[in-house]
Amino acid sequence: MSARKPQYHLHLETGRKRPAIFHLTEEKWIEATKRHRLLAKKLKVTIGWDNEILEQSLQSADFMINSFPPKNDLRLRAPRLQWIQTTSAGVDGLMPFTWLPKDIVLTNNTGAHGAKAEESCLMALLMLQSRMPEVIKNQQNHHWQGIFTTPIHGKTVVILGFGDLGQGAGRAAKKLGMPVIAVTRSGKAHRLADKVVKTNQLDKVLPKADFVIVTTPLTAETRGLLNKERIQLLKEGAGFINIGRSPIVDYVALANRLQKGELLGAVLDVFDQEPLAPTSTFWETQNLMVLPHISCDDPRYIDHLYDFWFFNFERFLNGKKLKNIVDRQLGY
Amino acid sequence: MSARKPQYHLHLETGRKRPAIFHLTEEKWIEATKRHRLLAKKLKVTIGWDNEILEQSLQSADFMINSFPPKNDLRLRAPRLQWIQTTSAGVDGLMPFTWLPKDIVLTNNTGAHGAKAEESCLMALLMLQSRMPEVIKNQQNHHWQGIFTTPIHGKTVVILGFGDLGQGAGRAAKKLGMPVIAVTRSGKAHRLADKVVKTNQLDKVLPKADFVIVTTPLTAETRGLLNKERIQLLKEGAGFINIGRSPIVDYVALANRLQKGELLGAVLDVFDQEPLAPTSTFWETQNLMVLPHISCDDPRYIDHLYDFWFFNFERFLNGKKLKNIVDRQLGY
Hints:
The structure is a homodimer of 332-residue chains.
Chain A: E1 8-14, H1 26-35, H2 37-40, E2 43-49, H3 54-60, E3 63-65, H4 74-77, E4 83-85, E5 105-107, H5 114-129, H6 132-140, E6 157-160, H7 164-175, E7 180-184, E8 195-198, H8 202-205, E9 211-214, H9 228-233, E10 239-242, H10 251-259, E11 265-268, E12 288-290, H11 301-317
Parallel strand pairs in A: 1-2, 1-3, 3-4, 4-5, 6-7, 6-9, 7-8, 9-10, 10-11, 11-12
Helix pairs in contact in A: 1-11, 5-7
């Protein structure tokens, strides 16, 4: 009887098609085991690419890190599986959770994105306030035009969702001296927000926004939340930022208002189809900045994920409730 | 004998060719007098455009706000003149001060730019760290490419000059969690800088910089300070920002390193010739963002200038030394 004998099988499932920063590489895993030596000794680990060794791994796996877990007959194929960790914060691609046995816990990666999201929101807010889309266009045309803008200090930002990303946006706004109105499901007060309202108050606060930042997860409740009518509620000259998910917002309605020059501009980091097709009109929409889904992801992403997994594994061993358990009804 | 009779003649001299935000308009002046009623009653004010009424105004003016004061025979033409206020912070265009009678005080507008400079530096630092020049180019080419970058937190910034603009840059860096090394003439410690070194230590600190921000005024000491040899001291992947004056930096050397891909990128807000000529190669230099001298100027600039002038006028009336007196040797 030795405590050093691996007691659990962890399977890491990864995909070559995803950007390299999301690869669950052996190299990064080995680095992580050096940071968590004692915990790592309790594990037998397999790493699979593009489901090549998925079936045999499932047969003995206790835990799995996998953003695209198999949905058919999971319990039959993975008799010992009790915990799945995703690499992403958003689990909208896995809903509804009818495929997920009740006794398998699903945890997401929320918390990994806040620091980068904060800096990205700082940048996006200031780029819009400084009318960078026009300045950039002028550079392309070798055209010098003094576009002078006031500091952003004192302008109001409405932040949809106030989780990991939303609080990052909130910290950014506070650093810029901006009043923050957060819109959340609960409406519960938060130290980073001057005011928190429930989602049903959205129509009242949208017209107050100098800037809107969308950070909510995509769920049944948030899909289509910023529909055409609500995009119309944005005041003249408002700036718009989306670092959450694209189906929350009617981009066509948004683009129409941008083309008419009614809005200050938009920074969009997420799109229905990614990569955005070269033929998309959004690339050329006036005052719209297309970012390639980079605003919340640190290249050290997987290192952080591994650290978080070990943190949770220690909780598991101590019989504590895991962190980041996804609510199957709410979808985050 | 009435205290309400104007005792002093203030002449405002302005130019139509400058951007409108710098115009010393009657409208803005009237607004300012409402904020400073008692002081304004002591003044007779004339406003001249493009020197059209300059000569007769000089004959009786006690004070003048003028960024391009006449340099020939000033004492003869303006026998009562005792104080000139410029609209800009930099007075490099007025040097050397051989034309300025010893008994005329020259004050500049330093202090008006810090708030905007802070936000501009925040934005420029984050745009470089996020490799926005590449992301922008990709958008132009309808090309989706996930360029992932770490947060800027913890990277070192070297700030040249630590006056109004430099401290704005310092506040920006501190908000981003960046260690700050300031390079100043005195080397005197400052709460916003982790370290302050004298200019003669420049060669030692430049290689440590992840980012360099140039904020110094243009003086005999700073002209050509960042020459070709010093640009070569910037480490691979360093970012470069200039919100000060262009002749401080060898832009050709900088552009060469940018073209070779040796640097992260540059945000340049100032150029030798402004407007930058459409034929300039800087518009197309790789990873170089051309900003049209907008980083430190708030559109409420002249309002702030008038408020500052009244603040100083009150000091004058009370026999106190004026603020922002330009040192004729140092040039700022």
